[in-house]
Amino acid sequence: MQWHSQNPRVSGTLAHPSDSEAWKHLDNTYKDFASEPRFVRLGLCTDGFSAHGKFVRQYSCWPVIVTPYNLPPWLCMKNPFMFLSLLIPGPKNPKGNLDVYMQPLIDELKSLWDVGTMTYDVSTKQNFKLRAAFGMLSGWTTSGKMACPYCMDKHRFFWLDNGSKVSWFDSHCHQLWEQVKEIPKSIDPKIHSTKSKKVKTGWHKQSIFWELPYWKDLLIRHNLDVMHIEKNFFDQLIHTIMNVKDTAVDTDKARLDVQRYCKRRSLEPIESDDGSLIFPKAPYTLDKAQRRVLCEWIKDLKFPDGYASDFGRCVDLQACKIHGMKSHDCHVFMERLLPVAMRELLPNNVWKAVTEINQVFRDLCSYTIKVDDVTRLEKNIPEILCKLEKIFPPAFFNSMEHLPVHLPHEVKVGGPVQYRWMYPFERFLNHLKKKIGNKARVEGSICKAYLDFVIESSETDEVIRALAMGSSRQVKTWRQFDINGFKFHIFYYGKHKATMNYGVGVISEEEIDYFGILEEVIELVYLGTINVFKTVLFKCNWMDSVNGMNIHEQYRLVDVNHSKKYPAYDPFFLAHQVYQVYFTSYPSLKKDKSQWWAVFKTKARSSVDAPFDESIFQVDIVETPTLCSSDDDDGVMYEDMDEMEEDDSGGEEEEQHEEDEWDDTISESEKETMCLSYLFDI
C-alpha cells in the first residue's frame, strides 16, 4: 500500500495514477493527508447489467465497485482488490435515484476522511488510524446535445437539417462548483419538479459526491471511458467504410448535408434527365469486391490464445459485412489491424487519416506514456480529426468522434487509461454474473458468489520446485507450452487451429528483432539424487530480418517476407528469451503482396510495463507453481483455472500440455513425479 511513495519513478513518464497531476494536486492541497503514504486513494465504478440475457424479461442490477489505487501496477485493478461495496437491486434502472442508494457509502467515505478507522499494519506490527480519499464520478449527462463534460455550454455542435441529428463536425474549464451548487440533489423533492427539468444545462442533478469535503478540489471527477469511446468510434468508422446498410452514415440525406456544409463537388448529387438524383461513389467506401476480400481476410485471421476472440464469427460473407464485434474485438482491430486491413483497399489520403487515428488510440492506451508524448497527442488530435472532416460527411461526427479530443488531457491529469477504463470492471462483473445460480434471486446469488470468490482468491498453493545436478540424455518434446504469460504451439500442431500460437520473436544483442515459426519445443531433463530439473529450448525457423523486413517510416508498420530465411544455422533459443508474435497477410487484389506478412507483437497476459520492486511487499512472496532449471531459468508457468475461465478467446482451450515423446529409460516413479509436476493448479 506504500508502493506509490517508494516506487522507482521515471521522470516525465506516466505509469501509474500516482504519476498524474490529479494525485500530486491532492497531495499539495491536503498535505496532512499526503504525509502518510498508507492513506488510501480510492476509485469507484458502477454499471448495470442484465442477469437474464437479451431475450427474456429485463432486469437491471447495479453493483458499485470500489478499488484502491495505492497498489503497484501488477496488483492494481485486479479481481482480488475490487470490493463490492453496494448492490443496487433491480429490476429497474435507478437512473436519477442512484444517489439515494449511495448515501450509506458517502457517509462511510466522509467518516474515513474526517475521522479514519483503526487499522493493523502487518509490516510494522502496529495499529494506525487509516484515512481514505475518493474520486471519479459525476452527474453530467453524456448523451444528447451537451454530451461533452469538458465543453459543456461552450459547445459548437449544430443540427443537420437533412440528417435530422446533432453533428459535432468542426468542433475542435470552468469552476464546476459554481455551476452545480444551486442544482437540486437527487434526494431533494424539488428535483422532480417541472421547472428543474427545463433548465438548459447538461447538469441534471447535483451529485451526492459534492458532499465530500475534498470533491471540489479534485482535478478529475468524471472519467471518459476509453473502452466505449474507442468501440463507438470504430463501429462508426468500419460501418461507413464498408457501407453497411442501416448503420453507415453515407446516406442520401448525408450527401445533401455535404452539399450544404462542405461544398465537395465530387460527393454532391447529380440530377439525371428524369429529375432523380444520382449519388457518386464516395472514396472512403469499398465496393463489393473489396468488401468480400476484406471479409475473407478477417475470417481467416488467427491470433494467439487469449489475445482476441474468433473474428470469423463476426463475418457475413454473403452480405459482405461484419457485425457483433465486442468491445475488446474493436480494441484489437482499431489499434492493431486497421492500417493493415485498409492499406491496399482505400485511397492513400484516406488510409493515412485512418492510420493516424489508429496511432492516436494506440498511443493513448499505452501502459506507460511520456508526458511529452501526451502533449504531442493533445496537439495532433484536432489536426487528425480535421483530416477526417475533409473526407467523411458531417453526419459521421457525433459526440463519440468529438470526445477523443479530451482524452490526452485526461491521461495527463489522471494517469494511464488502464486504471480508468471499464475492461477490468466488466471482467469482474462477468465473473460474478457466471456464478448466478438462482435467477429469481439475482442479488442473493451475486453476494454468495462474491463471498466465494474472496475466499478462493485468498488461498495460496504449495510451491513445486525441483533441484538437480548434471544432465540426462533423455529428451522430451511438447506440442504446446506456456511461459512468461505466452501460450505457444508448434507449427504442425497449431496450423489447422482457429488460433495462431506458433509465431515467435527474439531481440538480438544488436537490438534487432528476428521473427520466425516455432517448430519444436524440447525439454532437457536433469536428474538429481531426489528431484528433477529441466531446461526448455525452442527450435525455430527464422526469417531474414535484414533483407526481408520493411518498416513503414511514418507509422512503424512491420512487414516480413516469409519466403526469405535467416542464412545462418541458429535455430535454438531458451524459452524465456522468446516473445510471441502473430502474422497476417494483406487483403489485397495485388499478387505481389502474397509473400509479405504484417507482424504484430503480443503482450503477455497480466503483465504491466512498470518498474518492479519486490521489497514493497509486506509479506513473503509466494511463487506460482513452476519447475525451474539449475541455472534459474524461468521454466514453464501455467495459468490457474480462474484466469482461463476469463479468457475470451474463440480458439480451443487446452487444460493440459500434451506430451509427444517420452524416453523409455525413465522409471515409472520418475514419470509419475514429472507428470505431477505439470498438473494445473485448479
Give a brief rundown of this model:
The chain is α+β, with helices and mostly antiparallel strands. It contains 19 helices and 29 strands. 28% of the residues lie in helices and 19% in strands.
Shape: globular
Q: If you average the pLDDT, what whole number results?
A: 75
Count of β-strands? 29
Tell me the structural class: alpha+beta
Estimated radius of gyration: 28 Å
- Domain count: the total is 3
Instruction: Tell me the fraction of residues in β-strands, as a range.
Output: 15-25%
Low-confidence parts: 173-177, 189-200, 458-469, 616-682
What does the largest sheet look like? Answer: 10 strands, antiparallel
Number of helices: 19
Q: Helix proportion of residues, in percent?
A: 25-40%
Distance between the termini: 29 Å
Describe this entry's structure for a reader.
- The protein is α+β, with helices and mostly antiparallel strands and 682 residues long.
- The protein folds into 3 domains: 3-138 and 207-222, no CATH class; 226-419, no CATH class; 475-677, no CATH class.
- 28% of the residues lie in helices and 19% in strands.
- It is built from 19 helices and 29 strands.
- α7 crosses α10 (327-342).
- It starts with a helix and ends in a 5-residue tail after the last helix.
List keywords for this structure.
682 residues, alpha+beta, 3 domains, ten-stranded antiparallel beta sheet, five-stranded mixed beta sheet, 29 strands
Helices and strands, with pairings:
Elements: H1 3-6, E1 13-14, H2 21-29, H3 31-34, E2 40-46, E3 49-50, E4 60-68, E5 83-88, H4 98-114, E6 117-121, E7 126-130, E8 132-135, E9 158-160, E10 165-167, H5 176-180, H6 194-197, H7 226-241, H8 252-261, E11 270-271, E12 277-278, H9 288-299, E13 315-316, E14 321-322, H10 327-342, H11 348-364, E15 369-370, H12 371-389, H13 399-402, H14 407-414, H15 423-433, H16 442-457, E16 475-478, E17 480-483, E18 486-489, H17 491-494, E19 503-507, E20 513-527, E21 532-542, E22 549-551, E23 558-561, E24 572-574, E25 579-584, E26 596-601, E27 626-627, E28 636-637, H18 641-645, E29 659-661, H19 668-677
Parallel strand pairs: 2-8
Antiparallel strand pairs: 1-15, 2-4, 3-4, 4-5, 6-7, 9-10, 11-12, 13-14, 16-20, 16-29, 17-18, 19-20, 19-25, 20-21, 21-24, 22-23, 23-26, 25-26, 27-28
Helix pairs in contact: 7-10, 10-11, 11-12, 12-14
